[in-house]
Fold this sequence. Notes:
Elements: H1 2-14, E1 17-20, H2 22-37, E2 48-52, H3 79-86, E3 90-95, H4 129-136, E4 142-146, H5 153-159, E5 162-165, E6 186-190, H6 193-203, E7 233-237, H7 247-262, E8 266-270, H8 278-293, H9 312-323, H10 326-339, H11 344-368, E9 371-375, H12 390-395, H13 401-406, E10 410-418, E11 421-429, H14 434-444
Parallel strand pairs: 2-3, 2-4, 7-8, 7-9
Antiparallel strand pairs: 1-3, 4-6, 5-6, 5-10, 9-11, 10-11
Helix pairs in contact: 4-5, 8-10, 8-11
Amino acid sequence: ESIIENIDKKDGAIGAFLYVDKEGALKAAEKADRLRRDGKSAALLGIPVAIKDNICTEGTKTTCASKMLENFVPPYDATVVKKLKEAGAIIVGKTNMDEFAMGSSTENSAFKKTVNPWNFDRVPGGSSGGSAAAVAASEVPAALGSDTGGSIRQPASFCGVVGLKPTYGRVSRYGLVAFASSLDQIGPFARDVEDAAMLLSVIAGQDEMDSTSVPGRENCFLDGIRDGIKGLKIGLPKEYYGEGVSSDVRESVLAMVKRLEGLGAFVEETSLPYSEYALAAYYIISSAEASSNLARYDGIRYGHRASEYDDLIDLYARSRSEGFGKEVKRRIMLGTYVLSSGYYDAYYKKALKVRTLIKNDFDRAFEKYDVLISPTSPTVAFRFGEKSNPLEMYLADILTVPINIAGLPAISVPCGLASGLPVGLQIIGKPFDEKTILRTAYAVQ
Ligand code: GLN
């Protein structure tokens, strides 16, 4: 009740939630109380969690912040939601986001504006801006988001909370509305590293409904989290500290790295030479996959259907024209273009080759280092409307997209303030080595 009351009080100003499920949450809370009275326990018994609105919740609208899915009520729970419920968590509601997770500021939501709780003139980041803001404003202790190119880590960084993108395959994507299937991954937002580890422990694991999910080799990500970082080998990829990274962000991160050195870590500069091609490769691969994934919204099977049309083709065209926002259309056009015959080899196939080179860069670095550390975002949270040019908005993702391209785990942890706004430090790990990034993150906070 106090959580709901608090959301009622705060969310008018913050705008983190698209939907608050008061009735469902109170019913789940009563059940949790009953279980507790009976002496039962579960990992998240009675813990309120918010869910990004591209993750399916049975019987509760899942809109992807798009007019296309304005009235879509999924008939099933995503695997992560099912797991949260089984662990006793209370699903409080659905959070705002950039439409279909395309964006870096949550300004692309078709429905509402979410502000940064630190400064209402600034964006919360995106695309999981609602989840980040809900945790930062203490509306809920934890939330789930999705990260295709930074959408958990960047808003976590802008809002001063912890955000974790697990290794590709660590968490089931069943019930996550697909944006770019080879990059998408669900992960937690929390106020501290232990809470994030606890949430990951609950949602991780192989799922027969997602053939890309892998068997969990460990599932308690809290184990060893406090063991310290003596002897840990940290690489600082120099490309992640260069041009475009604001000097106060760089200084905050490097000051924290110094502290880690003081705690016994070994720190050295390194290089990921293909980094400069990551952003271009990302926007080609992700848009190509998006154009294919979003072909299902044809006005027939799902979502919005135009009320007036001449024939079938006209029905498709009008439904999609009316249902999708500007950025989503831009990605679909870009994606169909790079996949079209004549351009496929020049763009899409080339981008896949670059993807391999980027992956090789990381493999080489991880022969020598346990983790890599960089800023999460080149700047602190920017102002609304500041990045009205889409290319400028894309540049905000330059430090997060390479990690998705390589399928690696990475976490953003708060590391101080610059101009009164939170700075995020990104720790990148070897595939399926979430434990080491969590242990390092624990030392940072
Ligand atoms: N900002 C990036 C994009 O717009 C990343 C989005 C995401 O991770 N979902 O594609």
